[in-house]
Write a structure and sequence with these properties.
The protein is an all-alpha fold and 65 residues long. Helix content is 80%, strand content 0%.
Length: 65
């Protein structure tokens, strides 16, 4: 998770982070949409790197056995 957070901090512009934050506040607060998940909407920043990392770890574990 720390590597993922560092990558997010280095790859996303501050303006985009502000936009994501304000959108999340609006969805959670004003609209009471607690099912809203900014990580799913902006998955190219939040999830793709993590998925690739986990896939590679599993691939390497499978090749060892």
């Amino acid at each position: 998770m720390l590597v993922q957070r560092e990558r997010i901090a280095n790859s996303i512009q501050i303006d985009l982070l502000k936009q994501i934050f304000e959108e999340a506040l609006s969805e959670w607060g004003d609209k009471a949409n607690f099912g809203y998940n900014p990580q799913l909407k902006f998955k190219q920043y939040f999830l793709d790197f993590r998925i690739k990392y986990m896939t590679e770890v599993l691939r390497q574990l499978a090749s060892i056995s």
